[in-house]
Prior knowledge:
Layout: H1 6-9, H2 20-32, H3 40-56, H4 65-83, E1 94-98, E2 101-104, H5 105-131, H6 134-143, H7 148-177, H8 185-216, H9 235-257
Antiparallel strand pairs: 1-2
Helix pairs in contact: 2-5, 2-9, 3-5, 4-5, 6-7, 7-8
Amino acid sequence: MSSDFSLNYEKDTWVHRLDPRTKLIYIIIFATVPLFFTEFSYLLGCAMLILPVWISAKIDIRPIKALLVAILVFAVISVIFATFYNYQHPAQHTLFKLGPLTATDIGFRSGLMLGFRASLPALVALILICTTDPASLAKAMMKMHCPLSVAFMMMGALKMFPLVSTEMQNIKTAQIIRGLSYKGTKNRFRAFKLAVFPLIINSLRKSRITGVAVESKGFGKRAWKEYYQEFRFKPMDYVFLGLCIAFAITAIVLRFGFGLGVDPYVTSA
């Protein structure tokens, strides 16, 4: 069960009850606004605004633990590479040296900026993934006049995550029954290496079954334009959208009106 994404999107919180279109707009805003700033404190402020939504959604991190680890690893790698990158800035100071590599303060600050810019959109997207049924998300995207192929591709990708996780869990169980040990890093790597081929084959087989099913229902004719589920904004949607738009306007005014949020020593590249 820990690999089932439905552990999250079947909950009943105010975030889950938001219209999927509201959450899509929320993602667009919080994926764009961090690009305006290069100063660490402003990026940290964006993260602090995401945190209450994440907590109130009561997201169970077990099904998405691997994704969270991947986001964290990518952010840390960004910080490390930027810290040891030579920006050729006359005002930079050396923090420490590691063989031929030199860590600088400007590199570290640039790394923090890159790490936040990379992780914040991903964390916001996880809120959408964990609180919205993929089918409802696809219908909402179609309601926003998104091409059917793009909406279906999004739904298929989100549906594939739990399928692959469940399949991997089944393979692991079969390996343990057959006496394969998972103790130690070496045994875990060997077990994973043995599981890769059946995992790929079984995933491709399920993808093929899905493809045959949708084609038999007329997907190739692009005839899926009507559905019975209604999408209407509720008062909470309007309140949340108003707060998101106010945040975006405030960020634009601070950045382009007052010139705040820019670290002169940090490159935005």
